[in-house]
């Protein structure tokens, strides 16, 4: 699939990685770039069309899918992290919020736009995942669980949508230089680099993007004993 001439919708597009996705699409010649955000007034970049979209609102998702019937590239980028562990969070609310957005929100958009993509020749669906789809750390345990669920969803969507010719891509990254990772004191990848690798993969028709060494190392360790991913388990 070529980015030039495509019609794309990016969720969570008002800042950070979402904004980098929309900018890259414009630079690569996409015909139309819809920028979904809860507050469309926060979308200010030239060349994009702000769209009010809360991916946790099923009625709004359905209405947007009806209106944007020309989309052939969906980028499921919107996500939240409450930085909560399973056992020390005061309630289940952080875990529920992450699952509701990162898993059910992604599922809702994918279901709504699957027939749109089919009518427009198949196109592509991109899910922004994480190195934490492959592994977890205690202080963000519930976020990791939501991203692991989204990874499984991505694999299932890839199989279900293959018959209609839709390419489904999962993008995994460690630490991206955005507000979400502001407190992380480790090397980070630039959002523009993630966007570039993602759209290179769309054009090359790849199924998965491992954008940095964190994601590549974690994926490679999945077949090893748990102590490899989790050294704290070693006695």
Short description:
The chain is α/β, with parallel strands linked by helices and 235 residues long. The chain contains seven helices and seven strands, in the order βαββαβαβαβαβαα. A seven-stranded parallel β-sheet has the order 3-2-1-4-5-6-7, sandwiched between helices.
Average pLDDT confidence is 95
Uncertain residue segments: none
Q: So how many helices?
A: 7
Gyration radius, to the nearest Å?
Answer: 17 Å
State the helical fraction: 40-55%
Task: Write the element-wise H/E pattern from the N-terminal end onward.
Answer: EHEEHEHEHEHEHH
CATH-derived topology? Rossmann fold
Estimated share of beta-strand residues: 5-15%
User: Can you tell me the CATH class?
Assistant: Alpha Beta
The CATH superfamily appears as NAD(P)-binding Rossmann-like Domain
The termini sit apart by: 50 Å
Folded structure, characterized:
This protein is of the alpha/beta class and 235 residues long. It has a single domain (7-233), classed as NAD(P)-binding Rossmann-like Domain (Rossmann fold), CATH 3.40.50.720. 41% of the residues lie in helices and 14% in strands. It has helices spanning 16-27, 58-67, 93-119, 141-161, 191-204, 213-220, 226-229; strands at 7-10, 32-37, 49-52, 73-76, 124-128, 167-172, 208-210. Strand 6, helix 5 (191-204) and strand 7 form a beta-alpha-beta unit. Helix 1 crosses helix 5, helix 2 runs parallel beside helix 3 (93-119) and helix 3 (93-119) runs parallel beside helix 4 (141-161). It starts with 6 loop residues before the first strand and ends in a 6-residue tail after the last helix. 45% of the residues are buried. The mean pLDDT is 95.
């Amino acid at each position: 699939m070529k980015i030039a001439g495509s019609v794309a919708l990016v969720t969570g597009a008002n800042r950070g990685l979402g904004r980098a996705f929309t900018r890259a699409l414009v630079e690569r010649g996409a015909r139309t770039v819809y920028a979904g955000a809860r507050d469309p007034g926060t979308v200010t970049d030239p060349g994009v069309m702000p769209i009010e979209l809360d991916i946790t609102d099923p009625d709004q998702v359905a209405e947007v899918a009806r209106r944007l019937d020309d989309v052939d590239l969906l980028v499921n980028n919107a996500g939240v992290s409450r930085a909560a562990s399973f056992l020390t969070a005061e309630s289940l609310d952080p875990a529920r919020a992450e699952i509701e957005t990162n898993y059910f929100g992604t599922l809702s958009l994918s279901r709504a736009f699957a027939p749109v993509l089919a009518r427009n020749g198949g196109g592509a669906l991109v899910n922004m995942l994480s190195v934490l789809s492959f592994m977890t750390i205690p202080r963000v345990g519930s976020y990791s669980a939501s991203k692991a669920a989204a990874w499984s969803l991505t694999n299932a969507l890839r199989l279900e949508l293959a018959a209609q010719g839709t390419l489904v891509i999962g993008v995994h990254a460690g630490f991206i230089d955005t507000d979400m990772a502001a407190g992380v004191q480790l090397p980070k990848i630039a959002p523009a680099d993630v966007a570039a690798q993602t759209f290179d993969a769309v054009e090359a028709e790849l199924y998965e993007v491992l954008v940095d060494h964190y994601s590549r190392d974690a994926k490679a360790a999945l077949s090893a004993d748990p102590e490899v991913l989790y050294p704290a388990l070693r006695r």
